[in-house]
Give the backbone structure.
Amino acid sequence: MTSQPFFTGARAGRRARTVPPGPPGSTGLPGRALAVLTALVAALGIAFIDAPRFVAAAAPGGGFPDQRSLIGALRDAFVGYWGSAARNFAPPMQRIIDYWVLYHVAKAVIAALLLGVLITLATLLGGMYLRTGLGVRSSAAVASAWSVTAMLALSSAAVVAANIQGAIAPFSSLLSMLPAAEPDERFTATLDQVRQGLVHYSSTDGRTSPALDRMVDDFALYHAVMAVVAVIAALVLITLSVRVWRRFGRARGDRRTRRAFAAVGAASIVASLAVIVIAAANVTTVAAPAPALLAAFQGGW
């Protein structure tokens, strides 16, 4: 009489060991990791907006209460810099540049941390999608979340590149903030003189304003930085594309896996081509910075 329950329990134990595991989202670890990573994305997004201004305020001379005051100080400092006809920055302009460097460094660091979190989150979501056990609706939800995360990661990478560019060549980055039109006659006259100098820049036989030379040189550096960053990004994307397509070739018989690898591989190719175009455009600007800077002062920022 006592052997029957024992036998039944043993069979039940064997059956329990052979039951396939539930969906990946049913375990505690992926759900907890997703929650933590999502919270980090939100926290870093808020920090990216608010923190750089406070970090940059530690620059010599302090910070600026808002963007309007920054632009006003930049306008006055730019007029003074041009009027000095010197290559080196006067203290008012140097104060703004120091502030701008710290501002972009803070943004670049936060954006890089955000990029790392987003890559981790995308990797986790991709692993969840490729595992078996997800239903149709769950698979679609995970795929959508992965797509959004991947787009945010690409945007973060672009933001990192832009802020590296602004930190290394802050003067050109600041020039893009100059107002196109102002009632201030001195500022308007200064812009006209800069434009005239750039129109005749290649035909002056070296007899140009040192301030104008500094603008052209910094503008070339500004685009050289982006060209280098774009080349590095293109190499990373091409490497990713090669690895993904190799995985695609090995994933035989699993339609979901093959479809996922094909989508990622195609996206990597498109992104790498776009980045190569960006690199080529910036190299062209480095080769002839004065006409490009003139176009910027004429409204092409």
